[in-house]
């Protein structure tokens, strides 16, 4: 999983090489992840464009996207799809526990997954503010649907600064225990078999 050289952007890497079931792996330059892009230098912006990115999925809240605007906000490749809703007791800086968040806003999580499935052919770059939590959730879902094991999903998550692997393990267990699995959770929120297959085709080799 090579880290990407995007000046003034951290936690930027290519998911290529992540092991998948039956001896496969994620294709290089298919699914990329990073933190937000408002601090990218001109060199960094050019580096993102050089990757040939066909869709940038910004998972931040609308106010974050307005306060820290993406340099790609006016590009046709860019979409802002807030992954998580705001609910009573919501604290953006609360201790890590993604379980209440995915349960509160399954339709938002599904919309982000569908955006990945329906993106134009080519690399997709997913990001939030720090490139850790919301990005970690969507990437974990995509990897799970493509056939990555929980251990390999957690291994990718742990590469991000400031993460506790137990947080992702707890989330994956929660999908199984409370929803019957990742696919069942997403299907219950409106994701179709065609979307699942599109994500598998997009990132698997």
TrEMBL record:
Origin superkingdom: Bacteria
Domain Tyrosine specific protein phosphatases positions: 96-154
Family note: Belongs to the protein-tyrosine phosphatase family.
Pfam families: Y_phosphatase3
Ranges annotated as spanning the membrane: none
Listed name of the protein: Tyrosine-protein phosphatase
Organism encoding this protein: Glycomyces niveus
PROSITE patterns: TYR_PHOSPHATASE_1 (PS00383), TYR_PHOSPHATASE_2 (PS50056)
């Amino acid at each position: 999983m090579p880290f990407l050289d995007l000046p003034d952007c951290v936690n930027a890497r290519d998911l290529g090489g992540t092991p998948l079931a039956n001896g496969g792996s994620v294709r290089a330059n298919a699914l990329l992840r990073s933190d937000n892009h408002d601090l990218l230098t001109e060199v960094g912006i050019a580096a993102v464009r050089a990757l040939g990115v066909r869709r940038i999925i910004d998972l931040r809240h609308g106010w974050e996207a307005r306060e820290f605007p993406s340099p790609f906000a006016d590009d046709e490749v860019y979409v802002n799809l807030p992954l998580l809703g705001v609910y009573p007791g919501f604290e953006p800086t609360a201790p890590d526990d993604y379980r209440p968040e995915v349960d509160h806003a399954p339709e938002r999580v599904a919309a982000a997954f569908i955006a990945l499935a329906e993106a134009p052919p080519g690399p997709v770059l997913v990001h939030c503010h720090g490139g850790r939590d919301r990005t970690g959730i969507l990437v974990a879902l995509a990897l799970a649907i493509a056939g990555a094991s929980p251990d390999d999903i957690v291994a990718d998550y742990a590469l991000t600064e400031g993460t506790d692997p137990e947080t992702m393990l707890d989330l994956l267990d929660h999908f199984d225990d409370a929803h019957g699995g990742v696919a069942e959770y997403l299907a219950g929120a409106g994701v179709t078999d065609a979307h699942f297959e599109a994500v598998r085709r997009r990132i698997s080799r």
